[in-house]
Amino acid sequence: MPRIYSLxxxxxxxxxxxxxxxxxxYRFKLTDEDGIAIITTPxxxxxxxxxxxxxxxxxxxxxxxxxxxxxxxxxxxxxxxWLSQLYPCPHCNGFMVLRADxxxxxxxxxxxxxxTIEAFQKVKxxxxxxxxxxxxxxxxxxxxxxxxxxDILAKAEAASSAIFGD
Length: 166
What we know:
Layout: H1 18-24, E1 27-30, E2 37-40, E3 47-51, E4 54-55, H2 58-62, E5 68-69, E6 75-76, H3 78-84, E7 86-88, E8 95-100, E9 105-109, E10 117-119, H4 120-143, H5 146-164
Antiparallel strand pairs: 1-2, 2-3, 3-4, 5-6, 7-8, 8-9, 9-10
């Protein structure tokens, strides 16, 4: 399994680069919420839905998230890697693409009239914060199953009957 330590978004030869995907003809439909997209193959015969950075492709399903391993040990597919190099533009309904120039990485809007730029570190920080928030929400859901709630309600009802019963 290949490990991903950095991305070269401008490459048209690396399979994990967004410009490789764009040049190959993949089409991306992003929402205004980061981490959600529909990716259509160049032939138009397959689509992949990504929701909260989880893809429904065979690679992601059959390989516990995908063939690529990130530094934090999460596994992702190439579709999620591509989406990580895109960002919904906050000023127009377009999307921004990750660029790596001589001085810094940044996201640049693809809509010619927009020209919005976001710092890579800002987007990265927002994504990490959102990821931590989702992990915390998942932990809360895990700790309170429907059976737990039923047990808590039953104990509360029993206690109430004991206190307020005849």
